[in-house]
Design goal:
There is one protein chain. The chain has 348 residues and is mainly alpha-helical. It has 2 domains: 2-124, Tyrosine recombinase, N-terminal domain (DNA polymerase, domain 1); 140-330, Orthogonal Bundle (hpI Integrase, Chain A). It has helices spanning 2-15, 31-42, 48-69, 78-89, 94-113, 140-150, 156-164, 169-174, 223-243, 266-279, 289-300, 305-312, 317-324, 329-342; strands at 180-181, 186-189, 192-198, 201-207, 217-220. Strands 1-2-5 form a 3-stranded antiparallel sheet, with no helix packed on it. The chain has a two-stranded antiparallel sheet with strand order 3-4. Helix 7 (156-164) packs across helix 11 and helix 12 (305-312) packs across helix 13 (317-324). The longest helix is centred in the N-terminal third of the chain and has 22 residues, at 48-69. The relative contact order is 0.10.
């Protein structure tokens, strides 16, 4: 991945130059222009994928709307922002609008800090309520059917990591051979690979950091996964021998590569996973729902939520509880039994 990594680093270096506007910024600037200049301010303090996400939101959604309105930074009101949110809610989810709000609020906070405006109008806006997420879950039979359908395909290993270990897509694709200890039967999640749109170009970003500190975790290498990985290691060695000079050596430290050594890309996993399900007449879910399926199967088999938090690498318990507490039926049975015993109503 050296070529892609160097390319991403070069782009990042360019985007992290100190913000120097061509002309002095005043409160008379169009709000659309101010938002785009704000991007140049924050690029030095955020990761490449985050910057790409901010840029897409600002340049494709926020700026075009306010540019058409010819709204200036000084003239921007809470109602202007609220009207924008209401219009967008007809098109996108509340979660998307909440992301727009975060960008607008941060940019206006910077404007206040720079004494361009006296107060932040976004403070007065009612942002939409975040929708409660309910993921799709595969049961044990569906998971086994998926394992059978993916066997021998490029998706077999990413699916195995996603379904059994609950790895995020970036964690599954980013797993390297040196993170697997075949002697002590462990695998450590410490490297990720993501893709993002930078200036209209899809770019791979490899990182030795995970989503959060808690995401960096060590999990047991169970026998059936160990057997499959050892076989895969031999397959890759044979592929290197057969392909000779044609073999791509850039990604050979990664587990999820294809027959010629090319990395299995994030967008490929997402698109091919959907096709695999349809081809095998399996219920359609997202690749990320394998992570939820892993958690739901653990709950169904009596694993406490706290242990599931550690397994999935959530940064705090509330994240795990908010997503999966409604599935924890066993604990509710225990609670009911406790109440019956406490009231002396238990069946003798």
């Amino acid at each position: 991945m050296k070529g892609n990594k160097k390319r991403a680093e070069a782009i990042l270096a360019e985007k992290r130059r100190t913000f120097q506007p061509d002309e002095p910024v005043t409160s008379e600037i169009l709000f659309a222009d101010f938002m785009e200049q704000w991007l140049r301010v924050v690029k030095s303090s955020i990761a490449v994928p985050t910057y790409a996400s901010y840029t897409n939101m600002v340049k494709r959604v926020i700026s075009p709307y306010f540019r058409e309105k010819k709204t200036t930074l000084q003239g921007l009101t809470a109602k202007d922002i609220q009207d924008f949110y209401l219009k967008e809610l007809d098109r996108v989810s509340a979660c998307s609008v909440i992301h727009y709000h975060a960008n607008i609020h941060k940019a206006l906070k910077y404007a206040v800090k720079m004494d361009l405006i006296p107060v932040n109008p976004a403070d007065k806006v009612e942002r939409p309520k975040k929708e409660h997420f309910v993921g799709s879950f595969y049961d044990a039979d569906e998971m086994n059917a998926l394992f059978a359908a993916s066997k021998g395909t490029k998706l077999e290993i990413p699916i195995l990591f996603g379904a059994f270990y609950g790895l995020r897509r970036s964690e599954a694709i980013g797993l390297k051979w040196d993170a697997i200890d075949f002697e002590h039967d462990t695998l450590t999640i410490r490297h990720t690979v993501t893709s993002c749109d930078i200036d209209g170009k899809l770019t791979l970003v490899a990182s030795d950091t995970t989503k959060t500190k808690s995401s960096r975790r060590t999990l047991p290498l169970v026998p059936f996964v160990k057997t499959r990985l050892l076989a895969l290691k031999e397959e890759q060695a044979e592929n290197r021998r057969l392909c000779g000079r044609s073999y791509i050596k850039e990604y050979q430290e990664y587990v999820c590569i294809n027959e010629i050594g090319d990395l299995i890309k994030p967008h490929y996993v997402t698109e091919s996973f959907r096709k695999l399900l349809r081809a095998n007449e399996l219920r359609e879910i997202r690749f990320h729902d394998l992570r939820h399926s892993c958690a739901s199967l653990m709950l169904a088999n009596g694993v406490p939520l706290k242990q599931i938090q550690d397994w999935l690498g959530h940064s705090d318990f509330s994240t795990t509880a908010n997503i999966y507490a409604h599935l924890d039926y066993n604990s509710k049975i225990s609670s009911a039994d406790a109440m019956l015993n406490g009231l002396g109503l238990a069946v003798q």
